[in-house]
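Table S2 (text version). Query chain:
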Amino acid sequence: MIEVRNLTKKYRELTVIDNFSHTFHEGKVYGVMGENGAGKSTLFRCIAGIELYDGTVIVSEDRQIGYMGDTPFYYSYVTGMEHIEFCLRAKGKDVGRDEIERLNDKFALPLGRYASRYSMGMKKRLMLLTIMLQEAFQRHRPCGDYHSQAMAKGDEGQREMRHSFLTHRFCNI
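Corresponding structure-token output:
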């Protein structure tokens, strides 16, 4: 569960989110609609802890939030594998290449190619794979239910990982 209480976000004098409160329950799908610039992405970034805000966001103790923005960026001469390894090191996670490759079997990404040259769909799958490896793979338990869910099963078929993520596009449907 995620509980948002009195969340307010201002950019100098401009208030983009004004006293927003809501409880998001596990197992439900929520959509947010609004005009461009209405604060939808800003709300997600606040909930994920990427933006500073006034108010309170409470996430159940056994949950974490992984944020997947709508516009992926990758450096020109960094492979998909190098990007994943960099992000894992930044999070202090120790996941071997065998584990990365095993999960990538479900995503079918060419991790040896430059990520900046991937199609948009491949770039988004790389973002999701990276989030799953950072947030869920190490713990082998569910994490952060908020919007849509992605499922992946290990080769043994016994370990099921659940990972939910925030996505701007999903909320504009």
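Notes on Table S2: Helices lie at 40-47, 80-90, 97-107, 120-137, 168-171. Strands lie at 2-11, 14-24, 54-59, 66-68, 148-153, 160-167.
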